[in-house]
Amino acid sequence: MSSAHRIDTTRVGIVGAGPAGLMLSHLLSKSGIDNIVVDNRDRDAIARTHRAGILEHGSVKLLSDSGVNGRVLSEGHRHDGIDLRFGGESHRIDFLDLVGESVWLYPQNEVFIDLADARERDGGDVRFGATDTVVHDHTTRTPKIRFTESDGSPAEIRCEILVGADGSQSICRRSIPAGERSDDFIEYPFAWFGILAQAPPSAPELIYTNSEHGFALISQRSETVQRMYFQCDPAADASAWTADEIWAELQRRVDGPDGLRLQRGPIFEQMVLPFRSYVCEPMRYGNMFLAGDAGHTVPPTGAKGLNLALADVRILFEAIDSFHRTGSRALLDSYSDTALRRVWRAQSFSYWMTNILHSRQDASPFERKRALGELATVANSRYAQQHLAESYTGWPHA
Ligand code: PHB
């Protein structure tokens, strides 16, 4: 690095300007805690990244109560339940009746747009378009982020606390020596084929369906744009599918005696989304703390990814705030254990939702019939439905 590089000193250096990094930055700034965020993507690229669309009530509350803006409440759609569909029949899981809670359909890229706007409005220091980002000196009192600014000039951020909120490919996580972390994961023999289409909604709520042809999810975005997914081979080539083939595949997975018909329209985005279940432990190395996908990923079936990231951020914010106000590191020291308790519950729920709804190519008749028995248990037991409803709408934040 040249000696002319710019050095900034701040309390908290955050790698990653996705929802987790920006939410943390927003909360810290509101508490008067100086911070800088660095991301190697540009703002428009993140805003165009389509991810899941369901927010737990606790996530909605965090966004609205912390003064990001009110768009989640004015533009988001409250959903009081989902349809669990199998054997061609729908079974409504009525969250409001079962556990007195709801979720909001509000896409992750909108959450990002709201947070990026709020950071700009409030004078936050967010450096998009960085390159060659590396982190150093985690175990010292002054961890550092070194990178090249979007204008090509070398830069260094010196901080007290470093946060890795840089997603599933996290450079922060990978900078932890192998002997200092465990990487626990499972792979699934399927991925999701996701589309965005210009069409009216096919249903008022999300439909999660298990069919003899595999899983499908009918989700929405607005009155005119719909989001749908179906289980596919992880090696599938998204561009090889024609619109007619995609619609036929989705339709046969929701077919049933009730004659449910999907509303078709032009597909303007189609992609294969691989996933796995993964946890890094601990979510800390020295003075570096991991949050969100940098520390763990879940399959999308439980819609937990973004919600879990925001739950981490809330715990981490409180730990940093306490350190800032009192000098005590106690909450920083317990951050990883506290966050991981929720992470493993969400892992378990996401794994369960994935397994009851997807079918494995090599499943024996026994396994297929057993899976239907499990779905029938959920559909016929209020206790089982409450378990699903409570997990899906989100456990109370720590
Ligand atoms: C979505 O709308 O993109 C979505 C909703 C629920 C999920 C996953 C994705 O479980």
Write up what this structure looks like:
This protein is an alpha/beta fold and 398 residues long. The protein folds into two domains: 234 residues, FAD/NAD(P)-binding domain, CATH 3.50.50; 122 residues, D-Amino Acid Oxidase, Chain A, domain 2 (2-Layer Sandwich), CATH 3.30.9.10. Helices cover 36% and strands 28% of the residues. The protein is built from twelve helices and 23 strands. Helix 1 runs parallel beside helix 6 and helix 1 runs parallel beside helix 9. It is globular, with a radius of gyration of 22 Å. The protein starts with 5 loop residues before the first strand and ends in a 5-residue tail after the last helix. The chain binds P-hydroxybenzoic acid. The site of P-hydroxybenzoic acid (PHB) has 10 residues, from strand 17. It comes from Rhodococcus rhodnii. Its EC number is 1.14.13.2.
